[in-house]
Design brief:
7-stranded parallel beta sheet; Rossmann fold; alpha/beta; binds NADP nicotinamide-adenine-dinucleotide phosphate
Amino acid sequence: MKIVLPGGSGQVGHILARHFHARGHAVTVFSRNPRSAPWRVVPWDGLMPGGWIADLEQSDVCINLAGRSVNCRYTAANRRSIFESRIRSTRLLNEVVASLRRAPRLWVNASTATIYRHALDRAMNETDGELGGNEPGAPDTWNFSIDVAKGWEEAFFSTATPLTRKVAIRSAMTFSPDRGGVFDAFLGLVRHGLGGRQGRGTQFVSWIHEADFCRAVELLIAREEFDGVVNFASPNPLPNGDFMRALREAWGIHIGLPTAGWMMEAGAWLMRTESELVLKSRRVVPGRLLAAGFQFLFPEWPAAARDLVARWRVG
Ligand SMILES: NC(=O)c1ccc[n+]([C@@H]2O[C@H](COP(=O)([O-])OP(=O)(O)OC[C@H]3O[C@@H](n4cnc5c(N)ncnc54)[C@H](OP(=O)(O)O)[C@@H]3O)[C@@H](O)[C@H]2O)c1
Protein backbone atom coordinates (compact mmCIF):
# COMPACT_ATOMS: atom_id res chain seq x y z
CA MET A 1 0.00 0.00 0.00
CA LYS A 2 1.01 3.60 -0.56
CA ILE A 3 0.37 5.71 2.53
CA VAL A 4 0.87 9.48 2.72
CA LEU A 5 1.15 11.27 6.05
CA PRO A 6 0.74 15.07 5.92
CA GLY A 7 2.21 16.33 9.24
CA GLY A 8 3.69 12.86 9.75
CA SER A 9 6.99 14.07 11.19
CA GLY A 10 5.60 14.48 14.73
CA GLN A 11 4.94 12.02 17.53
CA VAL A 12 1.95 10.15 16.10
CA GLY A 13 3.25 10.36 12.55
CA HIS A 14 6.50 8.73 13.61
CA ILE A 15 4.63 5.88 15.28
CA LEU A 16 2.56 5.26 12.14
CA ALA A 17 5.38 5.73 9.65
CA ARG A 18 7.59 3.31 11.61
CA HIS A 19 4.77 0.75 11.82
CA PHE A 20 3.75 0.80 8.16
CA HIS A 21 7.32 1.11 6.85
CA ALA A 22 8.33 -1.98 8.88
CA ARG A 23 5.51 -3.91 7.22
CA GLY A 24 6.75 -3.09 3.75
CA HIS A 25 4.29 -0.35 2.81
CA ALA A 26 5.47 2.72 0.89
CA VAL A 27 5.26 5.60 3.37
CA THR A 28 5.57 9.26 2.38
CA VAL A 29 5.54 12.07 4.93
CA PHE A 30 4.60 15.62 3.90
CA SER A 31 6.63 18.10 5.94
CA ARG A 32 7.33 21.83 6.02
CA ASN A 33 10.93 21.00 6.96
CA PRO A 34 11.84 17.73 5.24
CA ARG A 35 14.52 15.80 7.08
CA SER A 36 16.03 12.47 6.20
CA ALA A 37 14.06 9.47 7.48
CA PRO A 38 13.87 5.75 6.68
CA TRP A 39 10.85 6.60 4.51
CA ARG A 40 10.20 9.18 1.81
CA VAL A 41 9.68 12.79 2.95
CA VAL A 42 8.42 15.46 0.55
CA PRO A 43 7.97 19.19 1.10
CA TRP A 44 4.62 20.88 1.52
CA ASP A 45 3.53 24.01 3.39
CA GLY A 46 0.01 23.01 4.41
CA LEU A 47 -1.27 26.13 2.64
CA MET A 48 -0.85 25.79 -1.12
CA PRO A 49 -0.95 23.07 -3.76
CA GLY A 50 2.48 21.78 -4.77
CA GLY A 51 4.50 18.82 -6.01
CA TRP A 52 3.17 16.69 -3.13
CA ILE A 53 -0.12 16.32 -5.01
CA ALA A 54 1.47 13.65 -7.23
CA ASP A 55 2.17 11.54 -4.12
CA LEU A 56 -1.34 12.08 -2.81
CA GLU A 57 -2.83 11.09 -6.15
CA GLN A 58 -0.89 7.83 -6.24
CA SER A 59 -1.63 6.94 -2.62
CA ASP A 60 -4.13 4.42 -1.28
CA VAL A 61 -4.48 6.01 2.15
CA CYS A 62 -3.93 9.55 3.44
CA ILE A 63 -3.51 10.08 7.19
CA ASN A 64 -3.45 13.80 7.99
CA LEU A 65 -1.85 14.79 11.31
CA ALA A 66 -0.77 18.34 10.49
CA GLY A 67 -1.26 21.07 13.04
CA ARG A 68 0.72 23.28 15.38
CA SER A 69 1.46 21.45 18.62
CA VAL A 70 -1.04 22.02 21.44
CA ASN A 71 1.77 21.60 23.95
CA CYS A 72 2.21 25.33 24.53
CA ARG A 73 0.66 28.23 26.43
CA TYR A 74 -2.65 29.23 24.88
CA THR A 75 -1.71 32.82 24.10
CA ALA A 76 -3.77 34.63 21.46
CA ALA A 77 -1.06 34.05 18.83
CA ASN A 78 -0.68 30.36 19.69
CA ARG A 79 -4.45 29.84 19.68
CA ARG A 80 -4.70 31.33 16.23
CA SER A 81 -1.88 29.15 15.00
CA ILE A 82 -3.30 25.95 16.61
CA PHE A 83 -6.69 26.62 15.01
CA GLU A 84 -5.64 27.87 11.60
CA SER A 85 -2.91 25.31 10.98
CA ARG A 86 -5.46 22.50 11.34
CA ILE A 87 -8.33 24.12 9.46
CA ARG A 88 -6.24 25.42 6.56
CA SER A 89 -4.32 22.20 5.94
CA THR A 90 -7.54 20.17 6.13
CA ARG A 91 -9.34 22.55 3.71
CA LEU A 92 -6.39 22.42 1.33
CA LEU A 93 -6.44 18.61 1.32
CA ASN A 94 -10.20 18.69 0.74
CA GLU A 95 -9.84 20.96 -2.30
CA VAL A 96 -7.12 18.76 -3.73
CA VAL A 97 -8.72 15.38 -2.95
CA ALA A 98 -12.07 16.52 -4.38
CA SER A 99 -10.35 17.54 -7.63
CA LEU A 100 -8.31 14.38 -8.22
CA ARG A 101 -9.25 11.89 -10.88
CA ARG A 102 -7.49 9.19 -8.93
CA ALA A 103 -7.79 9.84 -5.21
CA PRO A 104 -6.83 7.82 -2.10
CA ARG A 105 -9.65 5.45 -1.19
CA LEU A 106 -9.39 6.37 2.51
CA TRP A 107 -8.54 9.63 4.25
CA VAL A 108 -8.07 9.47 7.99
CA ASN A 109 -7.91 12.86 9.68
CA ALA A 110 -6.69 13.46 13.22
CA SER A 111 -9.23 14.79 15.69
CA THR A 112 -9.17 14.52 19.46
CA ALA A 113 -10.93 12.87 22.40
CA THR A 114 -10.94 16.34 23.97
CA ILE A 115 -14.02 17.11 21.87
CA TYR A 116 -16.16 15.36 24.53
CA ARG A 117 -17.28 17.15 27.66
CA HIS A 118 -15.50 16.97 31.03
CA ALA A 119 -16.94 13.63 32.15
CA LEU A 120 -16.66 12.16 35.63
CA ASP A 121 -20.05 10.49 35.60
CA ARG A 122 -20.11 8.23 32.57
CA ALA A 123 -18.13 7.11 29.55
CA MET A 124 -18.38 8.88 26.20
CA ASN A 125 -18.74 6.80 23.04
CA GLU A 126 -19.46 7.95 19.49
CA THR A 127 -23.21 7.32 19.77
CA ASP A 128 -24.30 8.88 23.02
CA GLY A 129 -21.21 10.76 24.10
CA GLU A 130 -21.83 14.47 24.63
CA LEU A 131 -19.62 17.03 22.99
CA GLY A 132 -18.22 19.67 25.31
CA GLY A 133 -18.34 23.43 25.17
CA ASN A 134 -19.33 26.13 27.61
CA GLU A 135 -19.98 23.78 30.53
CA PRO A 136 -20.52 25.82 33.69
CA GLY A 137 -17.21 26.58 35.38
CA ALA A 138 -15.07 25.15 32.57
CA PRO A 139 -11.92 27.20 32.01
CA ASP A 140 -11.72 29.14 28.79
CA THR A 141 -8.77 26.97 27.65
CA TRP A 142 -11.00 23.86 27.75
CA ASN A 143 -13.57 25.60 25.56
CA PHE A 144 -10.84 26.64 23.16
CA SER A 145 -9.69 23.03 22.65
CA ILE A 146 -13.26 21.92 22.02
CA ASP A 147 -13.79 24.74 19.52
CA VAL A 148 -10.65 23.67 17.67
CA ALA A 149 -11.80 20.05 17.53
CA LYS A 150 -15.28 20.97 16.29
CA GLY A 151 -13.94 23.38 13.67
CA TRP A 152 -11.43 20.80 12.53
CA GLU A 153 -14.04 18.05 12.07
CA GLU A 154 -16.37 20.48 10.33
CA ALA A 155 -13.60 21.51 7.91
CA PHE A 156 -12.90 17.83 7.26
CA PHE A 157 -16.46 16.67 6.63
CA SER A 158 -17.73 19.83 4.88
CA THR A 159 -16.51 18.84 1.40
CA ALA A 160 -17.83 15.79 -0.43
CA THR A 161 -15.09 13.51 -1.74
CA PRO A 162 -16.94 10.83 -3.72
CA LEU A 163 -13.83 8.72 -4.40
CA THR A 164 -12.55 8.90 -0.84
CA ARG A 165 -13.98 7.47 2.38
CA LYS A 166 -13.38 9.73 5.39
CA VAL A 167 -12.76 8.91 9.04
CA ALA A 168 -11.93 11.42 11.79
CA ILE A 169 -10.16 9.77 14.72
CA ARG A 170 -11.03 11.19 18.11
CA SER A 171 -7.82 10.07 19.66
CA ALA A 172 -6.86 9.89 23.29
CA MET A 173 -3.25 10.44 24.38
CA THR A 174 -1.16 8.05 22.31
CA PHE A 175 1.58 6.42 24.32
CA SER A 176 4.87 5.11 22.96
CA PRO A 177 8.27 4.98 24.68
CA ASP A 178 9.73 7.57 22.28
CA ARG A 179 11.67 10.41 23.89
CA GLY A 180 9.84 13.72 23.81
CA GLY A 181 6.41 12.11 23.51
CA VAL A 182 3.50 12.41 25.90
CA PHE A 183 4.35 9.16 27.76
CA ASP A 184 7.92 10.40 28.26
CA ALA A 185 6.47 13.53 29.91
CA PHE A 186 4.35 11.53 32.39
CA LEU A 187 7.23 9.17 33.14
CA GLY A 188 9.50 12.18 33.70
CA LEU A 189 7.26 13.27 36.58
CA VAL A 190 7.45 9.79 38.13
CA ARG A 191 11.22 9.56 37.70
CA HIS A 192 11.63 12.88 39.50
CA GLY A 193 9.45 11.86 42.45
CA LEU A 194 6.53 14.02 41.29
CA GLY A 195 4.40 11.12 40.09
CA GLY A 196 1.50 11.54 42.53
CA ARG A 197 -2.04 12.30 41.49
CA GLN A 198 -2.59 15.53 39.62
CA GLY A 199 -5.25 17.85 40.96
CA ARG A 200 -7.97 15.86 42.74
CA GLY A 201 -6.94 12.67 40.96
CA THR A 202 -10.56 11.72 40.30
CA GLN A 203 -10.52 13.03 36.72
CA PHE A 204 -10.36 10.25 34.13
CA VAL A 205 -7.40 9.63 31.87
CA SER A 206 -8.04 8.25 28.39
CA TRP A 207 -5.07 6.74 26.62
CA ILE A 208 -4.14 4.30 23.89
CA HIS A 209 -1.01 2.19 23.43
CA GLU A 210 0.86 2.78 20.16
CA ALA A 211 0.44 -0.86 19.09
CA ASP A 212 -3.34 -0.61 19.38
CA PHE A 213 -3.36 2.78 17.67
CA CYS A 214 -1.60 1.33 14.61
CA ARG A 215 -3.74 -1.82 14.58
CA ALA A 216 -6.89 0.28 14.80
CA VAL A 217 -5.76 2.32 11.78
CA GLU A 218 -5.26 -0.98 9.94
CA LEU A 219 -8.84 -1.90 10.82
CA LEU A 220 -10.12 1.40 9.37
CA ILE A 221 -8.21 0.66 6.19
CA ALA A 222 -9.53 -2.90 5.93
CA ARG A 223 -13.19 -2.32 6.81
CA GLU A 224 -15.19 -0.20 4.38
CA GLU A 225 -18.03 0.27 6.85
CA PHE A 226 -15.97 2.75 8.85
CA ASP A 227 -16.66 6.34 8.02
CA GLY A 228 -17.44 9.41 10.12
CA VAL A 229 -15.99 9.66 13.63
CA VAL A 230 -14.23 6.85 15.49
CA ASN A 231 -12.89 7.04 19.05
CA PHE A 232 -9.31 5.82 19.48
CA ALA A 233 -8.88 5.04 23.17
CA SER A 234 -8.39 1.95 25.29
CA PRO A 235 -11.69 0.58 26.63
CA ASN A 236 -10.60 1.26 30.22
CA PRO A 237 -9.96 4.92 31.02
CA LEU A 238 -9.17 5.30 34.73
CA PRO A 239 -8.98 8.01 37.37
CA ASN A 240 -5.78 10.03 37.33
CA GLY A 241 -4.81 8.87 40.85
CA ASP A 242 -4.95 5.20 39.78
CA PHE A 243 -3.25 6.00 36.49
CA MET A 244 -0.28 7.63 38.23
CA ARG A 245 -0.09 4.85 40.85
CA ALA A 246 0.16 2.18 38.13
CA LEU A 247 2.87 4.19 36.39
CA ARG A 248 4.84 4.49 39.65
CA GLU A 249 4.53 0.74 40.19
CA ALA A 250 5.68 0.05 36.65
CA TRP A 251 8.73 2.25 37.28
CA GLY A 252 9.34 0.69 40.69
CA ILE A 253 8.94 3.75 42.91
CA HIS A 254 6.34 3.91 45.63
CA ILE A 255 6.28 7.57 46.46
CA GLY A 256 5.16 10.39 44.27
CA LEU A 257 4.31 13.89 45.40
CA PRO A 258 0.75 14.79 44.48
CA THR A 259 0.34 17.95 42.46
CA ALA A 260 -2.53 20.18 43.55
CA GLY A 261 -4.59 21.97 40.93
CA TRP A 262 -2.92 25.32 41.52
CA MET A 263 0.49 23.67 41.33
CA MET A 264 -0.46 22.17 37.98
CA GLU A 265 -1.34 25.66 36.79
CA ALA A 266 2.06 26.90 37.96
CA GLY A 267 3.85 23.80 36.64
CA ALA A 268 2.00 24.07 33.36
CA TRP A 269 3.33 27.57 33.01
CA LEU A 270 6.86 26.26 33.55
CA MET A 271 6.31 23.43 31.10
CA ARG A 272 4.79 25.90 28.63
CA THR A 273 1.68 23.82 28.32
CA GLU A 274 -1.85 23.91 29.64
CA SER A 275 -3.15 22.13 32.73
CA GLU A 276 -6.21 21.12 30.69
CA LEU A 277 -4.11 18.31 29.26
CA VAL A 278 -4.17 16.57 32.67
CA LEU A 279 -6.94 18.18 34.72
CA LYS A 280 -9.88 17.76 32.32
CA SER A 281 -11.69 14.45 32.84
CA ARG A 282 -11.50 12.54 29.58
CA ARG A 283 -13.63 9.44 29.91
CA VAL A 284 -13.70 8.30 26.31
CA VAL A 285 -14.33 4.73 25.14
CA PRO A 286 -13.94 3.06 21.73
CA GLY A 287 -17.56 2.14 21.03
CA ARG A 288 -17.16 1.56 17.30
CA LEU A 289 -13.88 -0.34 17.49
CA LEU A 290 -15.32 -2.71 20.10
CA ALA A 291 -18.54 -3.17 18.10
CA ALA A 292 -16.40 -4.18 15.12
CA GLY A 293 -14.73 -6.87 17.25
CA PHE A 294 -11.40 -5.08 17.68
CA GLN A 295 -9.29 -6.86 20.28
CA PHE A 296 -6.99 -4.53 22.18
CA LEU A 297 -3.49 -5.84 22.89
CA PHE A 298 -3.35 -3.41 25.81
CA PRO A 299 -6.85 -2.87 27.20
CA GLU A 300 -5.67 -2.20 30.79
CA TRP A 301 -3.32 0.55 31.88
CA PRO A 302 -1.07 -1.37 34.36
CA ALA A 303 0.09 -3.85 31.68
CA ALA A 304 0.47 -1.07 29.10
CA ALA A 305 2.52 0.97 31.60
CA ARG A 306 4.82 -2.00 32.32
CA ASP A 307 5.39 -2.55 28.59
CA LEU A 308 6.07 1.13 27.92
CA VAL A 309 8.42 1.50 30.90
CA ALA A 310 10.40 -1.63 29.93
CA ARG A 311 10.81 -0.35 26.37
CA TRP A 312 11.60 3.19 27.58
CA ARG A 313 14.46 1.76 29.71
CA VAL A 314 16.14 0.12 26.71
CA GLY A 315 15.27 3.09 24.47
N1 LIG B 1 -0.10 12.95 20.46
C1 LIG B 1 -1.28 12.59 20.95
O1 LIG B 1 -1.35 11.81 21.90
C2 LIG B 1 -2.55 13.14 20.31
C3 LIG B 1 -3.80 12.89 20.93
C4 LIG B 1 -4.96 13.39 20.34
C5 LIG B 1 -4.88 14.12 19.16
N2 LIG B 1 -3.67 14.37 18.59
C6 LIG B 1 -3.62 15.14 17.34
O2 LIG B 1 -3.00 14.35 16.35
C7 LIG B 1 -2.16 15.15 15.52
C8 LIG B 1 -0.75 14.57 15.53
O3 LIG B 1 -0.27 14.58 16.87
P1 LIG B 1 1.28 14.63 17.18
O4 LIG B 1 1.43 14.41 18.63
O5 LIG B 1 2.01 13.76 16.23
O6 LIG B 1 1.60 16.15 16.86
P2 LIG B 1 3.02 16.83 16.60
O7 LIG B 1 4.10 15.96 17.16
O8 LIG B 1 2.92 18.23 17.08
O9 LIG B 1 3.15 16.78 15.00
C9 LIG B 1 2.29 17.50 14.17
C10 LIG B 1 3.02 17.87 12.90
O10 LIG B 1 2.27 18.91 12.24
C11 LIG B 1 3.15 19.74 11.51
N3 LIG B 1 2.82 21.14 11.77
C12 LIG B 1 3.13 21.88 12.86
N4 LIG B 1 2.71 23.15 12.70
C13 LIG B 1 2.13 23.20 11.47
C14 LIG B 1 1.54 24.23 10.71
N5 LIG B 1 1.46 25.50 11.18
N6 LIG B 1 1.04 23.93 9.48
C15 LIG B 1 1.12 22.68 9.00
N7 LIG B 1 1.72 21.66 9.66
C16 LIG B 1 2.21 21.93 10.89
C17 LIG B 1 4.57 19.45 11.97
O11 LIG B 1 5.28 18.84 10.89
P3 LIG B 1 6.38 19.64 10.03
O12 LIG B 1 7.04 20.62 10.95
O13 LIG B 1 7.30 18.55 9.58
O14 LIG B 1 5.64 20.27 8.91
C18 LIG B 1 4.40 18.44 13.09
O15 LIG B 1 5.39 17.43 13.07
C19 LIG B 1 -2.19 16.56 16.08
O16 LIG B 1 -3.00 17.37 15.26
C20 LIG B 1 -2.78 16.40 17.47
O17 LIG B 1 -3.55 17.52 17.83
C21 LIG B 1 -2.50 13.90 19.14
